[in-house]
């Protein structure tokens, strides 16, 4: 059986921000029992996970739809505001930076979700929690570190979002995510 490629739509922070995220992750690594630490080039804010696109549309059709979303969106700012976890406190599943944004990030995510659901992709049911994953999969060990992750603040990590991208997943590679296409935000249909 041929493996089907999976895709997702995301905002990737600029390299300077990703390098600071990597430094923060490296500082936490000796104290946090996670199996998988995300590659610096894989840091992103997911807008929409698509999974396999087979049977829904081809890659070119997907690119055309996402161009429409970019055309309607104005560039905006986001700030990484602190490190948190998903999962139980004693054995968290995911270590992540939260993202504070103006309403524009949520509007972009909603627009991408709406436009793709009209073309056959499943509409997202969960509420949008923008974040950048640093590490995943606890080693089934109790968390021994004493850091108060929820109170740890990012050091001036903010950036302008002037594009989002379509990524293809390659699970056995590092980095795992290949940028298929970047979509520049144009600031509305009249631009």
TrEMBL record:
Keyword annotations of the record: Hydrolase, Ligase
UniProt keyword annotation of Ligase present: yes
UniProt short sequence motif HXTX 1, positions renumbered to this chain: 44-47
Residue span of motif HXTX 2: 131-134
E.C. number: 3.1.4.58
Group of enzyme by EC: hydrolase
Keyword field contains GTP-binding: no
Family: Belongs to the 2H phosphoesterase superfamily. ThpR family.
Name listed for the protein in its UniProt record: RNA 2',3'-cyclic phosphodiesterase
Organism: Salsuginibacillus halophilus
